[in-house]
Design a protein that fits this description.
- Keywords: Kinase, Transferase.
- This protein has 2 domains: about 120 residues, ATPase, nucleotide binding domain (Nucleotidyltransferase, domain 5), CATH 3.30.420.40; about 120 residues, 2-Layer Sandwich (Nucleotidyltransferase, domain 5), CATH 3.30.420.40.
- It is built from 13 helices and 9 strands.
- The two termini are about 20 Å apart.
- The protein is α/β, with parallel strands linked by helices.
């Protein structure tokens, strides 16, 4: 096996994926492993990265000399935590080179074929990431509930707030508010108990209901989704204002929310060209 070899690794918070390719883009091997987010510790993060990489290398049948020719690109969830990048970069490895960035940035690189552009992630949370002319930028994504506007968690929170106000008689109710309150036995105290132990992921479980009711014309649901969509509009426009030549919407709620975006924003969206591992390969140097 001659020529350059490239290893791309997407080290996410729920799992790790690796792909080994040659300079022509031929897939030589793939591997998977457990979560690689730095919140689990640097050692655990690196172990997941190496496990996925070893599986890909084993599938390709490389010997030690060939492994030494690999140029690796790795995106890691939580690499922005204080000291995380330096700790990862200090680890000894067998490759010719290794480059680290965030999992969001490799998703951005993958979406635009390794070229300049931006992504707006719409899932449990929201965030805008861009790379333009060598500059990296981020808007939002500071965490729920102080940020992540337009996300699944945001839709769930806003829907519950409307439901409680409707229960009090402070505003008109709807099918959505009545269905949500029924899940808590029509008892605000039950909502409070649930709130005390709930995370952004728990709030986001209500997002499919909110979106479904909005599509069916529920007035409260439509207001919640329209408010959320306006925040997503703002994230897209922030990237465009910075000069992003392409902007893509990604994440579990991307397709559902896209229909609610402003016409001028929808017109400027571009389809993704590749996945996060493709972005990691671009980070490694494969074009």
């Amino acid at each position: 096996m001659d020529g350059a070899l490239y290893l791309g690794v997407d080290g996410g918070g729920t799992g790790c994926r690796a792909r080994l390719e040659d300079a022509a883009g031929t897939v030589l091997g793939q591997g998977i492993a457990g979560p690689a987010a730095t919140r689990f510790g640097i050692e655990a993060s690196w172990q997941a990265i190496e496990t996925a990489a070893r599986h890909a290398i084993a599938e390709a049948g490389l010997d030690a000399a060939q492994v030494g020719c690999i140029r690796a690109g790795v995106g890691v969830a939580g690499i922005g935590r204080k000291g995380a990048r330096a700790a990862l970069e200090a680890i000894r490895h067998p490759y010719a080179s290794i480059a680290f960035t965030s999992d969001a940035m490799i998703a951005c690189l993958g979406a635009h074929g390794g070229r300049d552009g931006g992504i707006v992630i719409v899932g449990t949370g929201t965030c805008a990431i861009g790379r333009i002319g060598g500059r990296e930028m981020k808007f939002g994504g500071y965490g729920f509930p102080i940020s992540d506007e337009g996300s699944g968690a945001y839709l769930g929170l806003r829907a519950l707030q409307h439901s409680l106000r409707a229960h009090d008689g402070r505003e008109g109710g709807s099918v959505l508010t009545r269905e949500l309150m029924a899940r808590f036995q029509d008892d605000p105290a039950e909502v409070v108990l649930w709130m005390d132990r709930s995370t952004a992921t728990d709030y986001a479980t209500f997002a499919p209901l909110v979106l479904r009711q909005a599509d069916q014309g529920d007035a409260v649901a439509r207001q919640v989704v329209q408010d959320g969509a306006e925040h997503v509009n703002g994230l897209v426009r922030a990237l465009l204002a910075e000069g992003a030549p392409r902007v893509s919407l990604i994440g579990g709620l991307a397709s559902a929310m896209e229909a609610w975006l402003a016409p001028d924003v929808r017109r400027r969206l571009s389809p993704t060209l590749g996945d996060a591992v493709t972005g990691a390969l671009a980070l490694a140097g494969r074009r």
